[in-house]
Amino acid sequence: MNFQPYPFERLKNLIAPITPKKEGLTLTIGEPQFPTPATIQDALKSHTDELRYYPKSIGEDYLKNAQIGFVQSRFGIKLAPNELLPTFGTREVLFNFPQFLLFDTPNPTIAHPNPFYQIYEGAAKASRAKSIYMHLEKSNDFKPTLSLEQRKQVDLVILNSPNNPTGATLTLEELQIWVRWALEYDFVLLNDECYSDIYQTTPPHSILEASYGIGNQDFKNILALNSISKRSSAPGLRSGFIAGDSKILKSYQQYRTYLGCAIPNPIQRASATAWEDRIESENIRKKYAANLKIAQEIFPDTPIAPYTFYLWLFVGKDIEFTQKLYEQEGILVLPGSFLGRDGGGEGYVRIALVYEESVLKEALKCIASFLNSYLKGK
After folding, report:
1. What is the pTM assigned to this prediction?
2. What is the 3-state secondary structure (H, E, C) of the chain?
3. What is the mean pLDDT of each run of 10 residues along the chain (378 residues)?
């Protein structure tokens, strides 16, 4: 298999020859810089005695019940036990689920946004699938779509709403259009919803809500992914789930018994605590909401979606800007073109809004000042 270098590997090579003049901040990766809540840490520590047990690939009932409870509380959807599987985060699912789903499909086709989380493309390559890049651009409000011919040929569509890196989010009505397409053209629709709990005021919708709302209450062809990495500041727990179509999940569950991706029991205990939590996750959400507000104030001419924790900033020449910003200010951002193909992401940089307000505010002010002088120099 011929995989493209990961964006952070490309970034490392890009800045290798550069010695920054100042000590700055790394704003490239979506890794929460807020502490993991003590309740989650305590749950992990207090169950280390369970390391002597082999974990089940299907997950323990207490974890599944906590995740089902989260879906009901957050989205108003009561799932049956066979409509959700606990997973080892969502990255592993995004990579292996397409391989499982498309194994017996001749000449499979996957559609996903462009720019994108790199696992989408990696999964397509590992599945021997043709990729349809759904271009996210200012002209289409950074929202994905497919032509009629593409809808007829695609086998799996991966959406990402709220979106990384653009922050664009599909409305309930737009998600319902996608559900109708999945049913009409008989493709599987998977929405990566890992940023669903990062928002300013109004929570975004789930593809499960859209499916239920149009009468597809058994979620035929519809699946949602979610994790606690962002909402609970706990990416190290690698706790996620896939939920929706029980017929697909039944076979996928059997496939997963061969993967060796079972979550260790102490981590399942801590994860269940995180999924059941409503207080600490709300405090974390408010931190991200405050950061988004800061970004909106510092960059008033840049449309910033009130979702996720990324600033998708237009700078012109994204690679050159990244190099010069790092050299002059020591601040590291991610070139948008490293996240896309065929021009996807070009001209933009992704900035992760993951630090405490005081730290982030000074960094964003510095970037704004530098960008102003950089564009004038053009």
Report:
1. 0.96
2. CCCCCCHHHHHHHHHCCCCCCCCCCECCCCCCCCCCCHHHHHHHHCCHHHHHCCCCCCCCHHHHHHHHHHHHHHHCCCCCHHHEEEEECCHHHHHHHHHHHHCCCCCCEEEEEECCCCHHHHHHHHCCCEEEEEECCHHHCCCCCCCHHHHHHCCEEEECCCCCCCCCCCCHHHHHHHHHHHHHCCCEEEEECCCCCCECCCCCCCHHHHHHHCCCCCCCCEEEEEECCCCCCCHHHCEEEEEECHHHHHHHHHHHCCCCCCCCHHHHHHHHHHHHCCHHHHHHHHHHHHHHHHHHHHCCCCCCCCECCEEEEECCCHHHHHHHHHHHHCCECEEHHHHCCCCCCCCEEEEECCCCHHHHHHHHHHHHHHHHHHHHCC
3. 88 97 93 95 98 94 98 98 96 97 97 97 96 97 98 98 97 98 98 97 97 98 97 96 98 94 95 98 97 96 92 97 97 98 97 95 97 84
